Amino acid sequence: MKNFTFSFPTQVIFGRDAETHAGALSAPFGPNVMLLYGSDRIRRSGLLGRLTADLEAHGLTVTLFGGIQENPALSTAEEGRRLAKEKKITLLLAVGGGSVIDTAKAISLGAKNSVPLWELYSGKAQTQRALPIGVVLTTAATASEANGVSVLCHDVLHEKAALDEPLTRPRFALMNPVLTYTLPPRQTASCAVDIFSHAFERYFHKGQQGTLRSQMCAAVMRTVITELPRALAHPDSYDARSQLMWASTVAHSNMLGFEGDFACHALSHVFTTELGLPHGAALGILMTAWCKYMLTDETEAIADFCTLVWQVPSCPSQIQTAQNGISAFQDFLCSSGLPVTLREAGLCDVSIEHLARLALPDMAGIRRGSQPPTVGPGIAVAKQKCLLPPCNGCVAILLSRAFLSCNFILFYWHQLCS
After folding, report:
1. Are 216 and 155 in contact (CB under 8 A)?
2. To which H or E segment does residue 240 belong?
3. Helix, strand, coil % (nearest 5) of the chain?
4. I want to staple 108 with a disulfide (CB 3.0 to 4.6 A). Which of 130, 156, 244, 350 is the partner?
5. For residue 198, what are the CA distances in angstroms to 247, 262, 369?
6. pLDDT tens digit string along 381-396?
7. Residue 372 to residue 208: CA distance in whole angstroms
8. Residue 36: beta bridge partners?
């Protein structure tokens, strides 16, 4: 186990009616609150009205900033930044899920700094100040309510950048599972796969393996496998929704440990910006394809994952055990209403070369192991090589980083027979 420093400064109030604490927790930060939200779902449910009334009852002036879309846009954050400065905002209250909270984090940095926001997210500038943030969680997926990570999309460049800035870690998070009851089934499934992926990518980090970490990661993944079907069958199941909500926070707030092989997450940003796939749906396609790709080099690791997490019986052949587990993974995605290939997602005409260059902007080509980068031959080999028997489906894209002790990014295209 490596040395580490762990801090969890976010105050969490979890359970029924947690959101009723919003006014009392917001008041100490100052008189002007910007309430950020996404769709009109919170207005129709009455949540927006209740929160506004509670804030005003505590002597606070409320400025609404709504309409935030999935995949937070730079232009939206810049608009919020201008409004926050104009209204002299003292606290940002994000009501929603990852996209709303990430937008609040970007505004938090922008409102206290004069540099262009994209310079902060692209690493060209740094900051020492940020507006405080509070959260009323209505979607469980990203754990953005309890970490300093945010993702921003550049409207013009069509690039997605992630920033881990401790200053933007929310001061408090109000988590009422009841507020997730009205999520549509497909969004519920997509969010659950995002939760799964945060544990999955920590589980496979070779530099941070150990009994406790592996078992904790597996517990989060098993929780998703168990509770997602219950939440889909009974959307108002408090137990299922509460298990998923807390699993989300645990999975990506470093409670499971630090570092991870966030290969699939890195490429999912290309999928969402270029192909328009929901984040969780992209991750489902990528994780199963990644397991297939890694199978020949890391047979034992994939087989162990399949027996521990997917609980498939051990076969005489580790390859067969792993294949059975990957099939169980794909079946789970299908039963949850999510695609397992790009073709199933309705994406058949995709440029391999274009996606490869977007995924690897700073590299001249595609590498595997210690082989030199060669774009043309690399893609040709990737098109031809099949690691598993052909199956119904057609396209999977893989990006692997850090796994196998690699310090470079690997992009791999695997086209299965239809």
Report:
1. no
2. helix 238-251
3. 50, 15, 35
4. 130
5. 10, 8, 25
6. 233 332 222 232 333 3
7. 28
8. 65, 94
53, 112 contact by CB (below 8 A):
no
pTM: 0.86
- How many H helices and E strands in the chain? 15, 10
Alpha helices by DSSP H, 28-73: 41-44, 47-57
- CA pair distance 331, 37, nearest whole angstrom: 34
Which strand ranges, in their side-by-side order, compose the sheet holding 133-137? Answer: 11-14, 172-175, 133-137, 91-96, 32-37, 61-65
Whole-angstrom distance, CA of residue 284 vs CA of residue 205: 18
Least Cα distance to 308 among 401, 203, 231 occurs for 203
The closest alpha carbon to 83, from 98, 103, 69, belongs to 103
Question: Helix, strand, or coil here: 309?
Answer: coil
Q: Give the separation between CA 121 and CA 116, rounded to whole angstroms.
A: 9
Structure tokens at 376: 């043309």
Q: One-letter amino acid identity for 193?
A: V
How far is it, in rounded angstroms, from Cα 165 to Cα 162? 10
H helices within 65-184, ranges in order?
A: 74-86, 98-111, 117-121
Average confidence (pLDDT) per 10 residues, the chain, 418 residues: 88 98 98 96 94 98 95 95 98 97 98 93 91 97 95 89 94 98 96 97 86 96 98 98 98 89 80 87 93 91 97 96 98 97 84 71 38 32 30 33 30 35
> What single-letter DSSP state applies at residue 242?
H
DSSP, collapsed to helix, strand or coil, labels residue 402 as coil
Measure CA 190 to chain center: 10
